[in-house]
Design brief:
There is one protein chain. By secondary structure, this protein is of the alpha/beta class. The protein has a single domain, classed as L-arginine/glycine Amidinotransferase, Chain A, CATH 3.75.10.10. It contains ten helices and 15 strands. The strands form five sheets. A three-stranded mixed sheet has the order 2-1-15. A three-stranded mixed sheet has the order 3-4-5, with no helix packed on it. A three-stranded mixed sheet has the order 6-7-8. Strand 4, helix 2 and strand 5 form a beta-alpha-beta unit. The chain is globular and about 45 Å long. It starts with 10 loop residues before the first strand and ends in a 7-residue tail after the last strand. InterPro entries: Amdntrnsf_FN0238. It comes from Paraglaciecola mesophila. It holds the Pfam family DDAH_eukar. This is Arginine deiminase-related protein.
Length: 314
């Protein structure tokens, strides 16, 4: 029987894009989004979407070679440039629960797919699906495990307040799924609000990587650090430069043999030797080349929708 870890899933959903480009509807509040939004016919965009397709293909192959179950879906639409980031529109939880989330950008709402939910129901034990997408009518948004970084062990939902994370939606999720909300503000060196929590925080079983300097309120910052230390985890502080290189946007995974930390090659290169040594005490570092995807403002953690459900017998 496969070893199960409440914090680190052993299976993920990935989306392979056929028409990848930087989303014009998310440029306003995503400071990590590097590229101008080119037209679909430009030569640069054509090359970028080919590279993005190949990098998703390669990443899925490498994850599978390390014992992670990857459910990969194709996206052939030209209207959903951010579909490669499925963790924003759904999440799964132990006990057979699935959540569907309200999205801020209108074209991102088209990413929600019934075939993915049906696959989860067929392959895993799903008891219920809680759909929060109706909150979009009231302009209340909560973009999944981008907006929240969940401590599945201590049952805490860490969330940066932003256009993508509404406190009322967060409270509703936490009430339904039995998490304690931990809402805070975070800003980069230019005073720009962080758009998603999972770019500055990664929670593993035995460690946390945290861009603590971005949490400007010292009382809240110390409270968060203390919570992590009290849980027995080692806290690895990330600099603003490392956050900009997506060091915080990583995900711990569990194979039959070991725990892995999936992160981008760019993030791996930006980490200090001592930081890597601390991580390697509990995980095998698995750097993946996703440079094309990162131009859209997200990295490997955003690309992986973890499955925390019990599989059905084959």
């Amino acid at each position: 029987m496969r070893k199960r870890n409440p914090q680190a899933p052993s299976a993920v959903v990935m989306i392979r894009p056929h028409h990848f480009y930087a989303n014009p509807q998310t440029q306003g509040d995503n400071a990590f989004q590097a590229l101008a939004c080119a037209s679909d016919s430009s030569a640069a965009t054509v090359e970028l979407d080919k590279l993005a397709y190949q990098q998703v293909t390669d990443a899925a192959y490498i994850l599978e070679s390390y014992g992670i179950d990857v459910h990969i879906f194709e996206d052939e639409s030209k209207d959903t440039p951010d579909s490669v980031f499925p963790n924003n529109w759904f999440s799964t939880h132990s006990g057979g629960h699935v959540a569907i989330y309200p999205m801020h950008a209108q074209n991102r709402r088209q990413e929600r797919r019934g075939d993915i939910i049906n696959m989860l129901k067929q392959a895993y034990r799903v008891q219920d699906v809680v759909d929060y997408s109706g909150l979009e009518q009231d302009q209340l948004y909560l973009e999944g495990t981008g907006a929240m970084v969940l401590d599945h062990i201590e049952r805490v939902a860490y969330a940066v307040q932003s256009n993508r994370t509404n406190p009322l939606a967060l409270e509703r999720f936490c009430s339904h799924f039995n998490y304690e909300p931990m809402l805070f503000d975070a800003f980069d060196e230019n005073g720009v609000a962080v758009y998603h929590t999972n770019v500055l925080m990664c929670i593993g079983t035995d460690f946390v990587m945290l861009g603590a300097d971005m949490i400007k309120n010292p009382i809240r910052r110390n409270e968060i650090i203390t919570r992590f230390e009290d849980s027995g985890r080692e806290v690895i502080m990330l600099s603003s430069r490392q956050i900009a290189e997506f060091c915080g946007n990583a995900l711990e995974l569990q194979s039959d043999e070991q725990r892995l930390l999936a992160l981008s090659q760019r993030a791996y290169n930006a980490m200090e030797t001592e930081q890597r040594k601390i991580l390697e005490k509990s995980v095998t570092l698995l750097p993946l080349e996703v440079s094309a995807i990162e131009t859209a403002g997200g990295s490997i953690r955003c690309m992986l929708a973890g499955i925390h459900l019990a599989p059905r017998p084959v």
